[in-house]
Amino acid sequence: MATLLRSKLSNVATSVSNKSQAKMSGMFARMGFQAATDEEAVGFAHCDDLDMEHRQGLQMDILKSDSGEEGGEPPLEGDIHYQRDGTGPLPPSASKEAGVCSELSGQGKPKITAWEAGWNVTNAIQGMFVLGLPYAILHGGYLGLFLIIFAAVVCCYTGKILIACLYEENEDGEIVRVRDSYVDIANACCAPRFPTLGGRIVNVAQIIELVMTCILYVVVSGNLMYNSFPNLPVSQKSWSIIATAVLLPCAFLKNLKAVSKFSLLCTLAHFVINILVIAYCLSRARDWAWDKVKFYIDVKKFPISIGIIVFSYTSQIFLPSLEGNMQNPKEFHCMMNWTHIAACILKGLFALVAYLTWADETKEVITDNLPSTIRAVVNIFLVAKALLSYPLPFFAAVEVLERSLFQDGNRAFFPNCYGGDGRLKSWGLTLRCALVVFTLLMAIYVPHFALLMGLTGSLTGAGLCFLLPSLFHLKLLWRKLLWHHVFFDVAIFVIGGICSVSGFIHSLEGLIEAFRTNAED
């Protein structure tokens, strides 16, 4: 009976898919050149969760109507294979959230080309956090450069195997897409005993990364402003408070339509800043300190550098949605290759020439090493980019939290934070303001860009980029894998686990020490 239902469902879903092409999956990717920052990318995963709920509800309606007409039995739990395309009205529980995703990108736009997909991936892995890479070379030498190359290779590979987990072979021997997001893959690996556990783990990791990204923006804003105007009687903490005051209106955000218009300008400005930094470094090529780059590592601080490098490559969370919105998904592997090769070359050159220029004086944010004559101008542009980018991860984190804790039907932990008219209740607004204040408090008590970036990369970056993709690949496709794929997956899981634990412990120790020092002051 289950086989008959699956066959019936496949035929119905095929006819439906001919009428509509991926209405909701990965709306950010359809923005093309407007999906412009690495933090923006996490919105793909959020929209994917909503898509999955929509499609499951749709296929349940199809099964119910078919069984009602033919007098068949209701489908068994866990016997539903939803396709990526679908039409029909949204279920009531998902209508509001789906409206958010449609607001982010707009429906009816054509799918993106491989070049546009590559632009999104490039922005995801070459954002402003590249400014911390020279600091990683300071504590790792040539090994740090090797790690930049190694991380690019591994992240490219894990991105490909993550997409492979979206597909399965049907009864006719055809490879079809049966999953749509990172959460779907995680849930499939934990089914049938714990059908939602994997998705919850991925969502928790996503929320942690989003909130930590917001904290990093506040930290870098305070740091850059303080070092741009050292003669002013304003401390770094005070600059962080000023930045948070500017960001407080984010609590009132209903959509990102206005904010997203600035994303392309922010990205272009960032590339210009990188070019300015490299140009200044090249102008001092005669003074480069090649003798300072050695084959040694700082055992205490190098694990933090691992987290910094890994964090700069995080893009896996939105790759399923991006691949699903490509005009030709077969070009995905080629797109991943050239984007990560380009990222590896640019990151390696940027980190190396910056470190050669300032050697042991390299600071956590490399622009702080620039001469005062141009430092202020460059840093002000970076602060503007950070402040304009902050609403993106903040809004995505709020949406995930509200959906999980306040809008999850009977499973919600708290009453709905929205009224009957769709307006946010006062206590819901208070919670949003509290999240903004929380990012400020963390930035004040732990104002260390490299430590926070290393902690985030070691905890969520390594997990989402190294550990989970290799584990899921082994779990879902182990019967079809060649021996060298099994070897690569196991090696990545072991090496990634060691690096993650080591980096997390050292970053956490550094943060605790910094927290104590700030508390004493």
Automatic annotation (TrEMBL):
Record-level GO BP terms = gamma-aminobutyric acid import; neurotransmitter transport
What kind of membrane protein is this, topologically?
Answer: Multi-pass membrane protein
Is Transmembrane set as a keyword in this record? yes
Q: Which GO terms describe its molecular function?
A: gamma-aminobutyric acid:proton antiporter activity; glycine transmembrane transporter activity; L-amino acid transmembrane transporter activity
Task: Give the reaction(s) catalysed.
Answer: 4-aminobutanoate(out) + n H(+)(in) = 4-aminobutanoate(in) + n H(+)(out); glycine(out) + n H(+)(in) = glycine(in) + n H(+)(out); beta-alanine(out) + n H(+)(in) = beta-alanine(in) + n H(+)(out)
Give the transmembrane region(s): 143-167, 207-226, 262-282, 302-322, 334-356, 376-401, 429-446, 452-474, 486-505
Under the heading Pfam families, the entry gives: Aa_trans
Residue ranges of domain Amino acid transporter transmembrane in the record: 111-507
Protein's cellular compartments: Cytoplasmic vesicle membrane; Presynapse
* Positions of region (Disordered): 64-97
What does UniProt give as GO cellular component? cytoplasmic vesicle membrane; inhibitory synapse; presynapse; vacuolar membrane
Q: Which domain of life is it from?
A: Eukaryota
Keyword annotations for this protein, in alphabetical order, are: Cell projection, Cytoplasmic vesicle, Membrane, Neurotransmitter transport, Synapse, Transmembrane, Transmembrane helix, Transport
Family membership, please give it. Answer: Belongs to the amino acid/polyamine transporter 2 family.
This molecule's function is given as: Antiporter that exchanges vesicular protons for cytosolic 4-aminobutanoate or to a lesser extend glycine, thus allowing their secretion from nerve terminals. The transport is equally dependent on the chemical and electrical components of the proton gradient. May also transport beta-alanine. Acidification of GABAergic synaptic vesicles is a prerequisite for 4-aminobutanoate uptake.
**Protein name as catalogued:** Vesicular inhibitory amino acid transporter
Task: Name the species this protein comes from.
Answer: Urocolius indicus (Red-faced mousebird)
